[in-house]
Design goal:
Layout lengths: L5 E6 L4 E8 L3 E9 L1 H5 L6 H22 L9 E7 L3 H18 L3 E5 H12 L7 E6 L4 E6 L6 E5 L5 H11 L6 H9 L24 H16 L6 H27 L3 E5 L6 H11 L5 E3 L3 H4 L4 H12 L19
Parallel strand pairs: 1-4, 4-5, 6-9, 9-10
Antiparallel strand pairs: 1-2, 2-3, 6-7, 7-8
Helix pairs in contact: 2-3, 4-11, 5-6, 5-7, 6-8, 8-9
The structure holds 5'-O-[(R)-(carboxyoxy)(hydroxy)phosphoryl]adenosine and zinc ion (ZN).
5'-O-[(R)-(carboxyoxy)(hydroxy)phosphoryl]adenosine (KG4) binds next to helix 5 and helix 6.
Length: about 350
């Protein structure tokens, strides 16, 4: 088997239609992301039916744009990689159907990629010399997973959220405050001018001997605070609220990721997923890691949130490891790592 030169990555698991061309698994030739945020914003979150329809409209124009920005053509593509789960089933199906149609028509190999594995590979695009073992915290709108990765392609799940994902915790409270979707970047921005000690929010599962997370207690406390202030006709100090709420999330995430590194005796931690864009998470994990001689890596912002470059890269390495998909590849909304 010769190594594929150009991989076309396709990603449609949530509200971004994305396509990218990757050279030799690690070099980004193009990375096109068509966001649907404007269509979902007035509903305060992603509407699955709208997402599927918008993906259908956008998927081929986005692929065409990715090919043209990479200065290549479909005929020159050697491998097609597509996200097949986890995510919204209707949204995933659009990408999977498009990838299968192209691979069949062009007679090119096809690889199905787990979206979370894609987020992890965003770090290899940022740092091609990165090698396991490492601890990875994947935090996005749908996932909060703490993983130990002893070897390429091997994932030990140390902990995960028992209720909301970290991104969901940001987005839901931001919505109650009337901030636009997605709320994570808004809270991050507001928090910069606030006092993280202003409101004493609870830390879910912080003292317990587990790597699992829980954000529902924090969310309830924040809702109660907002309701009480509104009942008393008192204005909420948005920056202090954002800083305190964000700190309650980041404090627990950072503490557990460092504890995981210590327990597995590894000196490398990586952050991935949309919430890895959070400025306080990046800074705090680095501050805790430094005195312990642990290095911290996270992708540039454009590779933290959903994109197809990470899917192309993960797909390339899966293909080299001998994993090719058949024509029966299907969307799996609940796909797990290690499948
Ligand atoms: O990875 P992603 O684009 O999509 C999923 O796979 O879910 O992550 C999106 C999530 C949203 O919940 C968004 O609010 C959150 O990432 N996010 C942030 C920040 N930027 C994006 N959360 C906190 N701080 C940020 N700066
Ligand atoms: Zn994602």
């Amino acid at each position: 088997m010769s190594k594929p030169k150009l991989t076309l990555g396709i990603e449609t698991s949530c509200d971004e239609t994305a396509a990218a061309v990757i050279e030799d698994g690690l070099k980004i030739r193009s990375n096109v992301i068509a966001s649907q945020i404007d269509f979902h914003q007035r509903f305060g979150g992603v509407v699955p039916e709208i997402a599927s329809r918008k993906h259908i409209e956008a998927v081929f124009p986005v692929i065409d744009q990715a090919l043209s920005e990479a200065n290549t053509t479909l005929e020159e593509i050697d491998l097609i990689a597509v996200t097949y789960g986890p995510g919204l089933v209707g949204a995933l199906l659009v990408g999977v159907a498009a990838a299968k149609a192209l691979a069949f028509a062009l007679n090119k190999p096809l690889v199905g990629v787990n979206h979370i594995e894609g987020h992890i590979y965003a770090n290899f695009l940022a740092e091609p010399n990165l090698k396991p073992p490492f601890i990875c915290l994947t935090v996005s709108g749908g996932h909060t997973d703490l993983l130990y990765i002893p070897k390429f392609g091997e994932y030990e799940i140390l902990g995960r959220t028992r209720d909301d994902a970290a991104g969901e915790a940001f987005d839901k409270i931001a919505r109650v405050l009337g901030l636009p979707y997605p709320g994570g970047p808004q809270i991050d921005r507001l928090a910069k001018g606030g006092n993280p000690q202003a409101i004493d929010f609870p830390r879910g599962l912080a003292v317990e001997d587990t790597f699992d997370f829980s954000f529902s207690g924090l969310k309830t406390a924040a809702l109660n605070y907002i309701n009480q202030m509104r009942q008393k006709n008192q204005e909420i100090h948005l920056s202090d609220f954002a800083a305190s709420y964000q700190w309650a999330i980041i404090d627990v995430l950072s503490d557990k990721v460092i504890r995981a590194a210590k327990s597995k005796n590894v000196k490398q931690v990586i952050l991935s997923g949309g919430v890895a864009s959070n400025s306080q998470l990046r800074a705090h994990v680095e501050a805790l890691a430094k005195p312990l001689g642990i290095s911290v890596l996270y992708p540039p912002l454009i590779l933290c949130t959903d994109n197809a470059a990470m899917i192309g890269s993960a797909g390339y390495f899966k293909y080299l490891a001998g994993q090719q998909a058949g024509w029966d590849l299907n969307a799996d909304p609940n796909l797990r790592l290690n499948n």
